[in-house]
Amino acid sequence: MNQLDKESAEAEFNSMCEFFDIDTDTSDLDGDELETFERLKGKVVKALRKGTLTLGDGGQPTYTTKAGTAMTFRLPNGAILLTEVKGVGKNDGTGMRRMFSIIGELTGGVTSPAKLSLRDTGVLTSIVNLFLAELQ
């Protein structure tokens, strides 16, 4: 895997945000929003620096899991917000179930959430949370 310096990784982050149509201008964010954005950005930039997250044409991200599974994100549409949550019956974990359902929809369901490492989970949920925040 090719590793990037911080400046290159941040440029790649901006390309990925352009792909997802995510506004990276933080001037209108309050303190909590800025903190959240920077935390999510930090996880994504770290993955770009390590080479586990790479960008294809026009900034389309592909994340390679610890187990070696490549997960290419496609552009989200409104249907993503209607993603069904499977196995819901208890209140605990519903948010994460929905998150993994969205990740599966965006990446074609190439792997089971149970097979992801915690590192994988952190990067994947950060990418999804960045564009979900854009909807609010």
Order of secondary-structure elements: HHEEEHH
Number of strands: 3
- SS content category: mainly alpha
The percentage of residues in β strands lies in 5-15%
Cα radius of gyration in angstroms: 15 Å
* Strand arrangement in the largest pleated sheet: 1-2-3
Topology of this protein?
Blueprint: H1 6-20, H2 31-50, E1 53-55, E2 61-64, E3 70-72, H3 94-107, H4 118-133
Antiparallel strand pairs: 1-2, 2-3
Helix pairs in contact: 1-2, 2-4
Describe this structure in words.
- This protein is mainly alpha-helical and 136 residues long.
- Helices cover 48% and strands 7% of the residues.
- The chain is built from four helices and three strands, in the order ααβββαα.
- It has helices at residues 6-20, 31-50, 94-107, 118-133, and strands at residues 53-55, 61-64, 70-72.
- The protein has a three-stranded antiparallel sheet with strand order 1-2-3.
- The chain is globular.
Characteristics:
mainly alpha; 4 helices; 3 strands; 136 residues
Question: Brief overview, please?
Answer:
This protein is mainly α and 136 residues long.
